[in-house]
Amino acid sequence: MDLGYINARVRGMHSRLLGQKDFDVLMIQKDIPSLASELEKTPYKDEIQEASVLYPGLKGIETALRMNLVHTCQKILSLVEGSDAEPLVLIILARWDIHNIKTVLRGKHVHVAPEEIEGALIPAGTLGEPLLREMIKQPDVRGVVDLLATWEVPYARPLTQCFDEYASSRELSVLEYALDRFHYEYAHSLLEGNKEDHEVMRKLLQLEIDSLNLKNALRMNRDKVDTGVAEGYFLPGGEHIPLEKFSALVSAGRIDEIAENLEGTPFAFLAPLVPEAMRTGKFSVLEKELDKYLTKKGSGVFRSDPLGGAVVIGYLWKKQNEVVNIRIIARCKDARISDAELEEELRHV
Amino acid sequence: MAGWEIPMGAAIAFAAGAIGTAWAQSRIGSAGAGTIAEKPETSGSIIVLEAIPETLVILGFVVASMIIIMIE
To answer: Which of A117, A160, A200, B65 lies at a C-alpha separation of 20 to 30 Å from A35?
Structure first.
């Protein structure tokens, strides 16, 4: 389909995203019912009305947000079908596939109730709801991997290859790493052209891989994981965190060593936060800042080439960010967290 | 004097304007259709925007007419 048509529709959808003023109004709501009624004045109206009949309170809002995100992603996928922007959208939506497969695997690994797993799924990717429902019905991890292989889902390949290692070690991280690695290799294989959009997407993917490697390296450093073992979990394909830097971050004994390794990378802004995170062992602050940075970069793509496919990518990032922010507001209201703390918790708006 | 040059010149002037208009309208049309699909209230502006490239073909027509009338 013509990119002019797709971009015009996406820009129309973009104009309906919530702005700073809308968020200010949502943030000053006292509780969940008032938040829900305020959301009824936004484009989330239909989903809020539908979900509030099924579930009251926070669950209703979360269900509505999930439904809205799924509708949006499916709409975008149907719009870009057959166009130059299709591979870009498939890469972005594959994240939800990875999220869903990991969620089911984690649930089956620790024997969580199927209803609980279902509540955590976001069927916004390419794996349809029937397959997800079948996955949840499986008795164990083996069943899930076999089902994916039967349905000829590409993600079954890395899982099948690493299953024996998982079966002997009972370490779920083996399967999760295989899945992540396959996802990024597959994504890069879709971006073999020299088009400007592909270059933009490639840069975003590299940044995402770097950020994942950085998060893993810092966690492994905290848990004093052996460098040799840690290197087995390094994701190739990043730009600023090569294997040597990753190993140096994992084995760094002093806080200033970590900060030194971050210098010269786009993640140098994390250096002042590292001492506090290392001292308290709480890495959520670093991870939040990294997520904010990635969201800012991803959303910024919306303002790149107005006639290119990257507009869709920027919109999907912005939409995801909006849903995450509303969810944060809802959870903070539910937990009666102060407005000042809530504002700190929000991601890039 | 009425060789083949004058009608040919007029034809080129008119055709170039028409082709330019067609190209511009196709791009504006597809983007406009997308915009109306998402925001039906913009229909009026889109129709005006869709018509703007018509000026190109009118200009081509005027130039073609001038070629035929003024060059003898």
So the answer is: A117
> Quick one: A144 and A180 in the same domain?
yes
- Which of B30, B36, B42, B46 to probe the A interface (max A CBs under 10 A)? B30
Q: A102 CA to chain B: closest CA distance, Å?
A: 35
Rounded distance between C-alpha atoms, residue A60 and residue A200, angstroms: 37
Chain B residue numbers with beta carbons less than 8 Å from the beta carbon of A8 are: 30-35, 38
Domain that holds residue A155: 86-194
A115 and A56 co-located in one domain: no
Phi, psi of A171 (to 5 degrees): -100, 115
At A121 the three-state DSSP class reads coil
Co-location of A103 and A182 in the same domain? yes
The whole-number pLDDT of residue B38 equals 93
On whether both A156 and A58 belong to a single domain, the answer is no
A-chain CB neighbours of B35 within 8 Å are 8-9, 11-12
Domain count within chain A: 3
Among A5, A12, A13, select the one facing B30 at the smallest CB separation.
A5
- Find the DSSP H helices in chain A: 3-14, 20-27, 32-39, 45-54, 57-80, 86-109, 114-120, 129-137, 141-150, 156-169, 172-190, 196-222, 227-231, 243-251, 255-262, 274-280, 284-300, 310-334, 339-345
Looking up residue A70, the CATH number of its domain turns out to be 1.10.132.50
**Does the pTM exceed 0.90?**
no
ipTM for the whole complex: 0.81
What would the two tokens of residue A222 be? Answer: 């905290």
Residues A305 and A1: beta-carbon distance below 8 Å: no
Q: Looking at the partner chain, which of B27, B30, B39 has a beta carbon nearest the beta carbon of A12?
A: B39
Closest residue of chain B to A11, computed from CA coordinates: B35
- Choose the mutation target among A3, A6, A9 for the interface with B, i.e. most B CBs under 10 Å: A9
In terms of residues, how long is chain A? 349
Inside any domain, residue A206: no
Tokens of A67: 């439904």
Q: How many Å apart are CA A322 and CA A300, to the nearest integer? A: 14
Render pLDDT for A327-344 as a digit per residue (tens, 0 to 9): 999 999 888 888 888 887
- The pLDDT tens digits for A283-303 are 788 888 898 999 999 998 888
